Amino acid sequence: MNKTALNKSHIELGAKMVNFSNWEMPISYTSLIEEHNAVRNTAGIFDVSHMSVFDFNGGDQVAFFEKIFANDIKKISQDNKAIYGALLNEEGGILDDLIIYHASGKFRLVSNCSTREQNRQWYEKHAVEFGVKVIERSDMGILAIQGPDALNKILAIKGIDDQVSNLSSFGCLFDDDKLYARTGYTGEDGLELIVPSTDINNLWEQALGQGCMPIGLGARDTLRLEAGLNLYGNDMTLDNHPYESNLGWTIDMSDENRQFIGKEALLSIDQSKSQKIVGVILRDKGILRAGYEITHDQGKGVVLSGSYSPTLQSSIGLARVDNGYKENGKVIIRNKELNIDFVSPRFLGQGKISL
Amino acid sequence: MSDIPGDLKFLSSHEWARVGSDGAITIGISEHAQDLLGDIVFVELPEVGQSVDAESDAAIVESVKAASDIYSPLSGEVIEVNVLLEDQPEIINSSPYEDGWIYKLTPADMSELDNLLSPEDYSEVCED
After folding, report:
1. Does A343 contact B at CB distance below 8 Å?
2. pLDDT tens-digit series, residues A72-95
3. So what's the pLDDT on residue A349?
4. Of A218, A285, A289, the CB nearest to B38
5. What pLDDT digit, counting tens, does each position of A222-250 carry?
6. B1 pLDDT more than 50
7. Co-location of A241 and A281 in the same domain
């Protein structure tokens, strides 16, 4: 199994380790709920070094991203900024979701762990015609420091460029090979640090010393769910197009001359008839889980992600449902019909980072 | 291992059974099980009067991460459920062997106790 540079630290901290797409990762250290609340109330640090990092060298990188990325890279290619979007196949199916960072004239891409091989081959296949070289950065690690106190704690860490405090949401900067970005997956303010693995232990120890609580992948999931952020594999897959996956806003067709992969397929979709992802709150006792069936007056649906929300102290989920849903519906849990409300997927209105 | 009360008998799937002085059997899950599950946020209790079979599912305990079936160590009829768990499922985390009991039953066949693990044998299961 693959291990991150912090594997030993996780075990020393008493983390429960799990196999996550063939990476040995911490699911929680103490209590998932305590970890979740620390990120909402103060600050937490995540080791997400299992994610895939790619750099690019030479050629026409803007044209390359214009072709393979459904959002328009031109939005950030003149700035020090990050952009979120989807990688589509010709049929409009979602190969992955990813963030592309651009600063100091360099692009760096972070995508999911389970799609690493598929994506690398996809990038390499399409990079050829643009003369771009794809460089997988398996020597990189990623830390996310998130929460209302995250920035203050980060500024106390030695070796991090003070300029990070000037970054706006989705802003980023390179310091040599280290990339700092005001991005995250929790709905809170904070940074992601995409830095050489050899720097990770020092940054991690300093962040813990500043009072950042170590946070496992369990709380990462409840945090992102409360923020209404999709998880690849649950809320979007190769079998879904972006309009039925809450990703319509990342599809940029404003440049009519831009031919990105999947565009033709998307143009043939009648969005008014597409299913939609909606937030669901369970009004009866129980816990929503992926796969549970949903019904409403005008159709049906299915829970994609479901869990307990430590902030709302009830069960919430993301569901893909037929059009025509109103305020409420039913979910079937173990042959019982329970009451649900349909709400915006942004369960937390106060989330400071908007994608 | 020293934490496991000596009067309990276990299934390898981490449920315990305790024989009361009135002959009723109290059932719950082990310290090890609650630790594996993490924060428990919902318990689906059986119904009083319901018949359960040994090693069949009788209740469901849900942590933030997942739902887990609770298998009955013994066959019998459910005579009481721990209604406190409806509003405070986390009691199972804090007191798995006492306040966090899940249900009680009248056993159909006391000899089924012989199929269960002693605390010593059960703690060996946990170490595997």
Report:
1. no
2. 999 999 999 999 999 999 999 999
3. 65
4. A218
5. 999 999 999 999 999 999 999 999 999 99
6. no
7. no
Whether residue A33 and residue B39 make contact (CB cut-off 8 A), yes or no, is yes
Query: CA-nearest residue of chain B to A36?
Result: B64
Q: Maximum CA pair distance of chain A?
A: 58
Pairing between strand A172-175 and A213-214? unpaired
Question: What is the model's pLDDT at position A294?
Answer: 98
Q: Which domain holds residue A182?
A: 1-266
Give yes or no: residues A50 and A94 share one domain.
Answer: yes
Residue of B nearest to A310 (CA): B64
Check which CATH number belongs to the domain holding A84 and give it.
Answer: 3.30.1360.120
Strands (E), A162-215: 172-175, 178-181, 190-196, 213-214
User: What tokens does A40 get?
Assistant: 């909402």
Q: How many angstroms away from the CA of A287 is the closest CA of chain B?
A: 7
Q: Where are the alpha helices (DSSP H) in A240-285?
A: 263-267
Please tell me whether residues A203 and A322 are part of one structural domain.
Answer: no
Q: Provide the phi-psi class of B120: left if phi over 0, else alpha when psi is between -120 and 50, else beta.
A: alpha
Q: In this complex, how many residue pairs, one in chain A and one in chain B, have their CB atoms less than 8 Å apart?
A: 41
The minimum CA-CA distance between B96 and chain A, rounded to whole Å, is 16
Q: Would an 8 Å CB–CB cutoff place A335 in contact with chain B?
A: no
Domains of chain B: 8-109 (2.40.50.100)
- The pLDDT assigned to B127 comes to 87
- Which residues in chain B are closer than 8 Å to A222, comparing Cβ atoms? 64
CB contact under 8 A, B67 and A289: yes
Do A241 and A327 lie in a common domain?
A: no
pLDDT of res. A353: 37
Q: Is the ipTM of this complex over 0.85?
A: yes
